[in-house]
Amino acid sequence: GDQVEQSPSALSLHEGTSSALRCNFTTTTRSVQWFRQNSRGSLINLFYLASGTKENGRLKSAFDSKELYSTLHIRDAQLEDSGTYFCAAEGTNAYKVIFGKGTHLHVLP
Amino acid sequence: EAAVTQSPRSKVAVTGGKVTLSCHQTNNHDYMYWYRQDTGHGLRLIHYSYVADSTEKGDIPDGYKASRPSQENFSLILELASLSQTAVYFCASSDGAGGQDTQYFGPGTRLLVL
User: Fold this and answer.
1) Cystine design at B94: which of A12, A75, B88, B101 (Cβ 3.0–4.6 Å)?
2) Closest CA to B82 of B59, B63, B100, B68
3) CB-based contact A90 B43, cutoff 8 Å
């Protein structure tokens, strides 16, 4: 069945540095969503993309439906960026999305 | 910003008991979803609904029922709770179909089955 794999599974960054998270798909998908889960467990939607790139502050995401991956770039990481980042791809059934297992990000002082 | 609320926020249940988790959204969204999250894993879809009085099975529906009595409300029912159903449960809503529109999540319900 459809699968979504995220890499890396865990990442530590020092404040002020930048990195990219990746979401790989086993089959093509029409859209991808990125979420952050904070320490309280709340899930916050960061981006919805059907194609192209979107940027919000220090976060930028890219997705090309012809490719089998999406990326989330974090620039100038801050302590409050710590959390678990999930991507979710539209399944063959458009009603459903398939979640990856997440990337645990720890931003260090 | 979409507003999705869940109740209770946490619950302890006994094995074999009945548990009802409730979800309410105030944004006029047609689509609602129930997911479970287990430690160290992503979210898995249990049931979803795209119209009142109708529900659909997700990827892991066994042991769960769902009810959508109105556009705003979506409940998840565990008729006979089991230890394996200990998890955090999230409700979500979206204006369009789940893969075609942004999903907005509730705060989650932490369920412990003893």
Assistant:
1) B101
2) B63
3) no
Among A31, A54, A35, A98, residue whose Cα is nearest residue B100: A31
Say which amino acid occupies B111: L
CB contact under 8 A, B58 and A96: yes
Chain A residues within 8 A of B23 when measuring between CB atoms? none
Q: For B8-41, give the secondary structure using H, E and C.
A: CCEEEECCCCCEEEEEEECCCCCEEEEEEECCCC
Mean pLDDT of A35-45: 92
Q: CB-based contact (8 Å) between B30 and chain A?
A: no
Q: What is the pLDDT of residues B34-63, one digit of tens each?
A: 999 998 778 999 999 999 999 999 999 999
A95/B104 CB distance under 8 A = no
